[in-house]
Amino acid sequence: MKTIALIGSTGSIGTQVCSVVRRHPDKFKIKSIVANASADLFLAQVKEFMPEYAALADEEAGKAIASQIPAGIKFGYGEQAAEEAIAYGEVAFVAATGFAGLKYSLKAVELHKDIALANKETLVCGGELVMGKVKGAGIDLMPVDSEHSALWQALSFRANAPFRRLIITASGGPFYAYTNEQLQNVTPMSALKHPTWQMGAKITIDSATLLNKGFEVIEARWLYDAPLEKIHTIVQPESIIHSMVEFDDGCVMAQMSYPTMELPIQLALTYPDRFDCGLKPLNFEALGAIRFLPLDRKRFPCYDLALTALEMGDNYPCALNGAGEIAVRAFLDEKIPFLAIADVMRSVLEQTERMQTDSYEILKTTDARARALARENISAVYK
């Protein structure tokens, strides 16, 4: 039985990890569980899975439910208490969202815990730092993003396997064919209607802007030690092919399935073994055409900014991420229009001072500065 420290239990990925554990109670046990502030759902999860340790990162939310934690479960609240959860279990499943996920990943490396990584920001913001530490610790890092899980599978679970190209697919989101005039009228409600995936609000907006795909290119650069020229992106609107690897002899290996996150979530916990995950078999006769469309970086400014930040290197991807988190939140709160998300991020990138990313403290400083610059930009331009 594999024991898990589940970080980010109440989000979209975290709740699906819980579904996987329910499906295979003989194979998985949640040893510790952490959420940010969703106290009611968190409390229900604690009572269902009865971990040894539970923590809420938000102190006020934690204090409010402390008396309701079942007897025998150690409970804490606050950021330090949340980080302590990593000490439990064989594998740290990092499903926390945003920059906050980076500190959990670094803590897992410090404790020599294998990591199932569902937090993009860990590698977008700290790819060089984290991967250097992962290699030094001799631990396994299992990617949970559907695209990176697909690449990992096509590479036979070997991040160091040789390849000619990594081909990352995108659904294109709901606005792939929109004109610039149409994009000016996009609302939060329409942007949250993804055509093929059910995800959290932040990643759904990032998928609509294609920023998410740019972040996946940055992740691929660090996961597979791949230069940008060996990473190719393409739109696959049906979301049946989740990514492909092209090898030196011209062979292309693709991973295919109906769109679901439970497959890569479960595989990160069971590899190299595979078990039923409740996914229906592909009905090839009913699929119809599987299309491939170009992903032109100049047509999608957020995607272009992500690649630009990668090309700039050092702390620029970290700054872009911090600005993006603020800009997306402002869009969802109807403080800025859809197209302004890219404008805010571009402004922050231009104002960022270069720093080498050899410590968490530098990344934390970069993130805080980028968020402050984004807020200033929004206040000044979009009153």
Structure explained in plain terms:
It is built from 17 helices and twelve strands. The strands form two sheets. A seven-stranded parallel sheet has the order 4-3-2-1-5-6-7, with helices on both faces. A five-stranded mixed sheet has the order 11-10-8-9-12, covered by helices on one side.
Compact description:
The chain is built from 17 helices and 12 strands. The protein is of the alpha/beta class and 383 residues long.
Relevant terms:
about 375 residues, alpha/beta, seven-stranded parallel sheet, five-stranded mixed sheet, about 45% helix, globular
What is this structure's SSE topology?
Layout: E1 2-7, H1 12-23, E2 28-35, H2 39-49, E3 53-56, H3 59-65, E4 74-77, H4 79-84, E5 91-94, H5 100-110, E6 114-117, H6 121-137, E7 141-143, H7 146-154, E8 165-170, H8 180-183, H9 188-191, H10 201-209, H11 211-223, E9 231-235, E10 241-246, E11 252-256, H12 262-270, H13 284-287, E12 293-294, H14 301-312, H15 316-332, H16 340-351, H17 360-381
Parallel strand pairs: 1-2, 1-5, 2-3, 3-4, 5-6, 6-7, 8-9
Antiparallel strand pairs: 8-10, 9-12, 10-11
